[in-house]
């Protein structure tokens, strides 16, 4: 069957891209997390979708694959990565509505005039809560806020954290506390990849 052959060849090329990214020290979502994103977008069909920290577009591939008429916006601080993402996505999905902005999401988001149905956060861990705060007023009802790396290699469960990781661990913990306790949100945590949270804006 053609679909299955396509699936296998996609699986193989995604594996190669992930391996080459990891060799080049470019962090990417795990395949499980990618497939989760792919499924969520397949089911939800958001009108507007934002990715904070699109890197070289590996996660974007999964996010955009099943997006039908909706629009995708990716932001990344690293110009080279962002340019690579733009090329990668336009060559694989020329028909999709995708745009990319280079810069700091915390400066760019306040200037956006769009309201989003899905936001995927995969940027600097110590800033997770700030990303949420900056996007809060630009979320539609029932919007999903999905965050990767919320378990940070299980470091958030440790009693002792090395100084090098402290800002990231504290940032993730502040984010987890907020999304767990906020009356605005309903949240679940999944132990896939490096830990994923999915919050729904009530
Ligand atoms: C984990 S990588 C993203 C990986 C990508 N989502 C993937 O799986 O292919 C994190 C990215 O966040 C970007 N980043 C960090 N802080 C940022 C900020 N304040 N605004 C925008 N991008 C940021 C980094 O440049 C980096 O490319």
**Global mean pLDDT:** 96
For the biggest β-sheet, the strand order reads 3-2-1-4-5-7-6
Which word captures the global form? globular
**Class from helix and strand fractions:** alpha/beta
Written as H for each helix and E for each strand, in order along the chain, the element string is HHEHEHEHEHEHEE
Count of DSSP-assigned helices: 7
The CATH topology label is Rossmann fold
Would you identify the CATH architecture? 3-Layer(aba) Sandwich
- By DSSP, the count of extended strands is 7
Helix share bin: 40-55%
Portion in strands: 15-25%
Query: What radius of gyration results from the CA coordinates?
Result: 16 Å
Number of domains: 1
Main pleated sheet: 7 strands, mixed
List the helices and strands and how they pair.
Layout: H1 2-23, H2 31-44, E1 48-52, H3 58-65, E2 71-76, H4 79-92, E3 97-102, H5 105-108, E4 116-121, H6 128-135, E5 139-148, H7 163-181, E6 185-190, E7 196-201
Parallel strand pairs: 1-2, 1-4, 2-3, 4-5
Antiparallel strand pairs: 5-7, 6-7
This protein binds S-adenosylmethionine.
Provide keyphrases for this structure.
single chain; 202 residues; globular; seven-stranded mixed beta sheet; binds S-adenosylmethionine; 22% strand; Rossmann fold
């Amino acid at each position: 069957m053609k679909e299955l052959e396509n699936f296998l060849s996609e699986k193989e090329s995604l594996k190669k891209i992930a391996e080459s990214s990891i060799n080049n020290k470019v962090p990417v979502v795990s395949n499980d997390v990618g497939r989760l994103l792919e499924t969520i977008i397949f089911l939800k069909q958001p009108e507007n979708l934002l990715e904070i920290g699109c890197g070289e577009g590996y996660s974007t591939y999964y996010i955009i694959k099943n997006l039908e008429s909706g629009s995708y916006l990716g932001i990344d601080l690293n110009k080279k990565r962002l340019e690579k993402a733009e090329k990668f996505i336009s060559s694989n999905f020329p028909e999709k509505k995708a745009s990319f902005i280079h810069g700091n999401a915390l400066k760019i988001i306040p200037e956006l005039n769009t309201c989003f149905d899905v936001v995927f956060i995969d940027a600097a861990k110590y800033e997770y809560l700030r990303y949420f705060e900056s996007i809060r007023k630009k979320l539609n009802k029932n919007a999903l806020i999905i965050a990767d790396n919320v378990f940070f290699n299980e470091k958030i469960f440790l009693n002792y954290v090395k100084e090098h990781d402290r800002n990231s661990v504290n940032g993730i913990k502040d984010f987890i506390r907020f999304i767990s306790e906020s009356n605005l949100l309903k949240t679940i945590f999944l132990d896939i990849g490096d830990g994923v949270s999915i919050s729904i804006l009530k």
